[in-house]
Amino acid sequence: MANPELAIIPQHVAIIMDGNGRWANKRGLPRTVGHNKGVEAVREAVRAAGEAGVKYLTLFAFSSENWSRPESEVNALLGLLRRFIRRDLAELHRENVRIRVIGERENLRGDILPLLVEAEETTRHNTALTLVIAFNYGARNEIARAVAKLARDVEAGLLKASDIDAETIGRSLDTADIPDPDLIIRTSGEERLSNFLLWQAAYSELVFLPEYWPDFDRNLFFDALKVFASRDRRFGGLSSKTAAVGG
Questions:
Q1: Of residues 14, 12, 11, 13, the one with CA closest to residue 137
Q2: With contact defined as beta carbons under 8 Å apart, do 94 and 129 qualify?
Q3: 123, 114, 135: which is closest to 88 by C-alpha?
Q4: One pLDDT digit (tens) per residue for the chain, 247 residues
Q5: Mapping DSSP to helix (H, G, I), strand (E, B) and coil, where does residue 202 land?
Q6: Strand order in the sheet with 205-208
Q7: Which residue out of 25, 66, 141, 195 is catalytically annotated?
Q8: Distance between CA atoms of 39 and 83, rounded to whole angstroms?
Q9: Catalytic annotation on 174?
Q10: Distance of CA 176 to the CA centre of its chain
Q11: Which long-range contacts (CB under 8 A, 24 or more apart) does 208-212 make?
Q12: Are β-strands 12-16 and 183-186 bridged in parallel, bridged antiparallel, or unpaired?
């Protein structure tokens, strides 16, 4: 149920979960401890989104650039994903949460792709919050794959080049059935999108939090929603205040 304190609830919130390693380093702990603590923050975010009445929550779980990290850290991150799905999938399903996965699926390691597909298939018909997991995801790669698909359709005579527009490209992206994010949150104090939902973020409101991701909780989520509610979203047009005075 939507929180009555919030006048405007974003339909879709996306989060760049940044700062696990720095959280751990600050405490003299291995980076893997920060990643483990970050999983608890994921659960907090999912619960808070459901409580607020958000319909779509997208989490940047693993970027296509993350493969360049040390092998031990990559293996630890993949292990966390496995444990999250195996441990939390049943509970998410009971809570009527639908899981969607976006990102490049080819050449994924071992059991990762089957686990992701299982999560999607198990929850396909759920109708509450849609939890979108961006895994092996990079926005430029996503756009390149969409353009390549359209080029193949043109070569096959299924589509005319003159028919390609922004809407056509949007329907070819991983997020074709997902509305663009109204709000993108990034933790850790960094203020950039880092190749995340570049196409879809055209009119998103951006909120940057100084806290590291393992410290993210319900209060920080609702603080970001309050900032969003205070924004005047114009989508390239006049603000409601300006229009009211004829400016």
A1: 14
A2: no
A3: 123
A4: 455 467 799 999 999 999 999 999 999 999 999 999 999 999 999 999 999 999 999 999 989 888 888 888 888 888 888 888 888 999 999 999 999 999 998 878 778 889 999 999 999 999 999 999 999 999 999 999 999 999 999 999 999 999 999 999 999 999 999 999 999 999 999 999 999 999 999 999 999 999 999 999 999 999 999 999 999 877 666 555 444 333 4
A5: helix
A6: 98-102, 130-137, 56-63, 12-16, 183-186, 205-208
A7: 66
A8: 10
A9: no
A10: 14
A11: 209/185, 211/19, 211/187, 212/18, 212/19, 212/20, 212/22, 212/23, 212/26, 212/34, 212/187, 212/188
A12: parallel
Tokens, residue 45:
């975010």
The answer to whether residues 149 and 172 touch, using CB atoms and an 8 Å cutoff, is yes
Amino acid at 70: P
Say whether 66 is catalytic.
yes
Q: Which residue is listed with tokens 């919030």?
A: 6
- Is the entire prediction scored with pTM above 0.85? yes
The residue annotated as part of the active site, out of 18, 88, 174, 182, is: 18
